[in-house]
Amino acid sequence: MRNVVALLLAGGVGSRLNVLVQYRAKPAVPFGGIYRIIDFTLSNIANSGLTRVAVLTQYKPLSLMDHIGDGSAWDMAGRTRGISILPPKTGEQDWDWYKGTADAVRQNLRFISSDRYTEVLVLSGDHVYCMDYGPLVAFHKERRAQVTIGMIPVAPEETRHFGTATLDGDRKIVDWQEKVAKARSDLASMGIYVFDRAYLTAALEKTKDEDFGKQIIPRAIKEALVYGYPFEGYWRDVGTVQAYWDANMDLLKAASGLAPGACGIRTNHAGEALPQDRVPAKISASARAVNSAVSPGCVVSGTVEGSVLSPGVIIEKGASVRDSIIMHDTVIREGARIERSILDKEVVVGENALIGRGNAKKANARFPDHLHSGLTLIGKKASIPPNARIGTNCVVFPMVGRKDSRSFSLADGGTAEK
Amino acid sequence: MILAGGRVDELDVLTFLRPKSVLPFGALYRIIDFPMSNLMNSGIERVGILSQYRPFHLINHIANGQPWDMVGRNRFAVILPPFKGRGASDWYKGTADAVYQNRDFIRMYNPDLVLILSGDHIYRMDYQAVIDFHIEKKADLTIAFTAVPSEGADRFGQGLIDDEEPRGGKVVRYVEKPRKALYDWASLTIYVFNPGILLEALEENARKESHEFGRDIIPSLIGNARVYGYRHTGYWGYTRTLEEYWRTSMDLLGDRPRIDLGAWQIRTNLAHGEIRDMQPAILGPSAAIEDSLLYLGCEVRGKVFRSLLFPGVRVEEGAVVEDSILFFDTVVGREAHVARTIADIGVRIGPRARIGGKGGELSVIGTESEAPEGVTIQPGVTVYPRVEAGRFARDEYRSGEIIK
Predict the structure, then answer these.
(1) Which DSSP helix (H) or strand (E) runs through B248?
(2) Does A285 sit within 8 Å of B255, measured CB to CB?
(3) I need a labelling partner for B337 at 20 to 30 A (CA). Which of A305, B215, B360, B372 fits?
């Protein structure tokens, strides 16, 4: 794999994740207790034996850069291996920002210009999966393809979110549709592309195409040898709040196929930059903790059921958390009850507050596309006052209530903005 | 300089294959993490670690000092093993000899003071406060003391300290391991030395038969140098016997634990044993856990009460673990029952096995041993490391038996 260079597109805004991406790019969104979404792709890269990778960032890159550090958490630091972070370069004009995924690669063509590389592996940092890219690259070389796309079957109603393709007996792509409902095929692009380096360089130099899915790939299918590589295994695009919640909950199901520890997914604990290591999780004598994932530094004295807890979460006596995702250092005070909610980092939920119960059919009034399945989102560092009532499909923006302790409540589908 | 070499007979199978300083403690740590973190938090970042007994795990754990930020142009943590010199240098013949053989290490850095610690206690101390005391008193040697524990006083060096002030005073008398409690203060084997006095005393001691700080160096300095005692009033946890180790471990539990790990700011090496690559602990639908600690990589489907589970421990459905300490990657099979037991790294306890019991003596199982399905091991049984299931000839073992 030493002649393959990887480009990880980590600029995605992921706007459908709503307040979870208010301060961070989608790949940096925490996942599964201790991970961030990008850990899956970074670990796959390392575990596949790739040694050179560039991470192309753009949108709110700070937490992502802290997290990646020097790459040593993935064993990607050394003389012949490394992770380079490539932010957009500001040239003479401020519209030098990346105009799309292909444009981002075009602006960094120099990174892949070395003759050492025969293939370029283009990946996205938005997906949760374990994959060895070795067989994919081998398939690409065997077929002498110019482009090979990683593909996975999806439910027919999901095709509108993906590029879809029909393959012939040799797995050559003979038909391609970009994000259409009721597509002719349910085989979806995973956003993983192996390019012949010369072909990719030429395609980026001779066109002004800005996007892989919309332009480069459809053009390649017309003019070049493009193959599809079907992947079997766990893969999720966690682009919506519901999909994100579902994938987190898969961690609790032994049969789901999501087992990050077993398939070698690593994260960067040092990225938290704490003065000490997180202490062991403590389950107190008064606790009831079942069917949940618990991280270091958690103190559970109340009830936790069907939930995923990131490091440092405190659930006090008499409080209960059900079917929820609670991120780093959030505190649930005595008697508070949380259901079907996602609480970002450092949220404080006051005594006896009630979050997430209500009529799941009442979509969020302001973001009906984001919250309509009965989940509630609480933004980073929000403070929910004691006795507050927050219904389902609600959004509380980051920092709400932090400085102003007036009580507030939200009916189903409500939004609280700072 | 940390004296981290020894193994301890009373800890039995737990120190067969490792020096005591890397004995796991507190569901995540190794004992040496406590002095190492204390050093880091005290701003002392030039550390030599003296070790000779099976040092591999210690070397692996200390790595390059990076877990404690002891990497830099003026910061380091290095292991100092015994070496062959042109003369008689050989294995360390005692704590004083270990430091004596590394006197060039001390001279090379020409320090203002030398702090000597042992790597086998559980405590938090700001060594800077001891050093300030030492400097204020213009002492040649300052020894940290704690109140003599009610039992086993004969295992400590005991001192009579002048009542100069709350922090301590001159050491008037000192006796190493007397038969009974003579004085109120027990040495913590934490010494602040002026390097000149230290090197002189070591040079003189080198010509003698016995080479221990407590037995030889300290008594030789009382009356001949300015020796002060510093009273440590915080928590002090001994781990010299199995029972002591177990009791100190249990001080991590309860609603108000005596050992407050969060406040103590302890660091360990998460790369050791690949702890950092494990996933969050998974508690299954049938799990019941009370008053216990656990870490990444644990999977609990049974019941766990008042116990410590190190990373990677698995407790299967129907199993019960109580008042026990299970080191890394130990597996407790279905419907097994484990009580008052310390299981070392990678132990396998078969389904329906019964190990230990409430009230009785502790049971200990050495690393990577396998208790077979259905076996009964009564309290107070010792299983050696790497005993395979096939070596268990009987269905039941009684208190005091040793399985090799």
Answers:
(1) helix B242-250
(2) yes
(3) A305
Nearest to A57 by CA among A13, A119, A121, A117: A13
Name beta bridge partners: A395: A377, A415
Are B239 and B386 contained in the same domain? no
* Rounded-to-integer distance, Cα B25 and Cα B30, Å: 5
d(CA A321, CA A317): 11
Q: Which residues in chain A have their CB less than 8 angstroms from residue B28's CB?
A: 277, 279-280, 296
Which among A288, A263, A223 is positioned nearest to B303, based on CA atoms? Answer: A288
Bridge partners, residue A178, by sequence: A163
Q: What is the CA radius of gyration of chain B?
A: 22
Assign a CATH topology to domain A4-250: Spore Coat Polysaccharide Biosynthesis Protein SpsA; Chain A (3.90.550)
Pairing of strands A4-9, B168-176: unpaired
CA-to-CA distance for A87 and A91, rounded, in angstroms?
A: 12
Full pLDDT tens readout for chain B, 404 residues: 999 866 666 778 888 888 889 999 999 999 999 999 999 999 999 999 998 777 888 999 999 999 999 999 889 999 988 776 655 556 678 899 999 999 999 999 999 999 999 888 999 999 999 999 999 999 999 999 999 877 777 888 999 999 999 999 999 999 998 888 888 899 999 999 999 999 999 999 999 999 999 999 999 999 999 999 999 999 999 888 899 999 999 999 999 999 999 899 999 999 988 999 999 999 999 999 999 999 999 999 999 999 999 999 999 999 999 999 999 999 999 999 999 999 999 999 999 999 999 888 999 999 999 999 999 999 999 999 999 999 999 999 999 999 99
Contacts of A275 in chain B (CB under 8 A): 265
Query: A282 burial class (0-12, 13-18, 19+ CB within 10 angstroms)?
Result: buried
Contact (CB<8Å) B28/A295:
no
Residues A397 and A22: beta-carbon distance below 8 Å: yes
B27, B265, B288 member nearest A275 (Cβ): B265
Close Cβ partners of B63 (under 8 Å, ≥ 6 residues apart): B269, B271, B272
Q: Where do the CATH 3.90.550.10 domains begin and end in chain A? A: 4-250
CB-closest option in B265, B270, B280 to A295: B280
Contact A261, A243 (CB under 8 A): no
Fold of the CATH domain A275-418: UDP N-Acetylglucosamine Acyltransferase; domain 1 (2.160.10)
Say how far residue A369 (Cα) sits from the centre of its chain: 19
How far is the alpha carbon of B304 from chain A, nearest alpha carbon, in Å? 10
The partner residue sitting opposite A294, judged by closest CB among B266, B283, B291, is B283
- Domain count along chain B: 2
DSSP letter for each residue of B99-148: HHHTHHHHHHH--S-EEEEES--EE---HHHHHHHHHHTT-SEEEEEEEP
- In the numeric block, the tokens 């030395």 are attached to B193
| B193 CA to centre of own chain | 23
Give phi and psi for A13, each to the nearest 5: -75, -40
**Chain B closest-CA separation from residue A160 CA (Å):** 33
In this prediction the pTM is 0.94
